[in-house]
Amino acid sequence: MSEAKFLSGYDPDAYDRPALAVDLVLLGLHDGRPSVLLLQRAEHPHAGRWALPGGFVALDETLDAAAERVLRDKAGLAGIQCEQLYTFGALDRDPRMRIVSVAYLALLPERAFGEALDGMPKLSRAVIDVPWTGEAGGPVAVLPADGRMRGEPLALAFDHAEILALAILRLRGKLDYSDVGFALLPEHFTLRQLQDVHEAILGTPLNKPAFRRRMLDRGWLAPTGSREAGTSFRPAELYRFQKPS
Amino acid sequence: MSEAKFLSGYDPDAYDRPALAVDLVLLGLHDGRPSVLLLQRAEHPHAGRWALPGGFVALDETLDAAAERVLRDKAGLAGIQCEQLYTFGALDRDPRMRIVSVAYLALLPERAFGEALDGMPKLSRAVIDVPWTGEAGGPVAVLPADGRMRGEPLALAFDHAEILALAILRLRGKLDYSDVGFALLPEHFTLRQLQDVHEAILGTPLNKPAFRRRMLDRGWLAPTGSREAGTSFRPAELYRFQKPS
DNA sequence: CTAACTAATGCGCATAACGGATATATGTCA
DNA sequence: TGACATATATCCGTTATGCGCATTAGTTAG
């Protein structure tokens, strides 16, 4: 039997299968802390709780394409780098049915974050409280960003707290040796802004001269020649991210 | 409407969905090079080509459980640490139908590798030829390990070459700062054996005193007091891996 | 019994990375 | 013009790393 013949007689629906979805962790910064875009579920299941934007994977779209579609439809964003994070497959993670979800991580500079908030009124910004240091790992809490950010952490739907915790862990791990830090900055930025990003992600202050040296020695920073404006003190040089050839 | 009521009326089969599978990269070492367990496909599609052991994910099993089941049924192994690697979702990766596959990576010490080969006659060992250095990434080739290992790389089925390449990349990346290297060694081992493992994975020779110092300073090695046997020269101290408290 | 051999182990030095404090430069604003 | 705040540069002590070399402890040959 030829391979073509075999395929024509193959029944793709012979077995039951889990549903497949993507969930997006859209991270930004807020007041020197990591924050995330969430939407409050209006419908069952988990009505009223807060969830990551997500959606089912269609038969004729890749995982990456599904992530991009959710990014566009639920956050109104395009052209944002989306990276696969992990695939979650616990049996009871969704009460409706068996759903396996591929989590994606995207980093939004302040402009994109605000754009999403403005364009999609259902989205809210939540601040992530990371109670552990370094790459210890563990649970994280999310707090409302608007208003006073007091007490009451938000209740997350499904296993989204777990997804969020892994996103933070992954981000911290990649910060040193990859270029993820720049994804949270505008095109032109100062070294202090870059350091602020690193400190927000790592949750710990960094030594300034050492940080400057490391970043400049890495060769990824191209000075633009211009300086920041609007300061009441000496303005800092503006740099541009330029991947080494 | 209560959540319970909502759930009772929910139709899980409302939409078509991709099939979900797991594929296992079972890595070991052979003659100082990374090697992998493969099986030659007897049936369509891709009959005759070489594939990673895999299987579909059942409705009532988690992804990790599916990986363990495949490890048991197709490699005859149990109690091996399996770690999720990446999820592959290209549209045409399987000609039968749309299949999304969650790849897992497991490291087999020589004993487990041989055990799998003996217990499952269909499995073969293939040596992985990594033509790039460091973490540059890129395609890899697989060569038959038995016999002379001459020319003719094996033809891999589906996108399994891509999966394999990512496994190598991930392994190289984690080698420095994690304990993955020990997973390829027996319970008791010498520093030279540990260095051999690192050199095989990285594909580059390492400086001996510097390697010794780094490993010992890390505090993960507990000397056993005994020494290796059967050498015609000074036998080395045997160590045991002991995760720091 | 002794010497040759081999690889493990230990030592020392030059160099590079790094944390951290301090000094200098360069803008704004009163 | 000078006070001020922050960016930028310099310096130093500590620690990690690369690397050659001496020493040690086994086996094997004579």
UniProtKB/TrEMBL annotation, chains A, B:
Signal peptide: none annotated. It comes from Methylobacterium thuringiense. The lineage of its organism: Bacteria, Pseudomonadati, Pseudomonadota, Alphaproteobacteria, Hyphomicrobiales. It holds the Pfam family WHD_NrtR. It comes from the Bacteria. The gene is gmm. This is GDP-mannose mannosyl hydrolase. Residues 15-157 form the Nudix hydrolase domain. GO terms for molecular function: hydrolase activity. Keywords: Hydrolase.
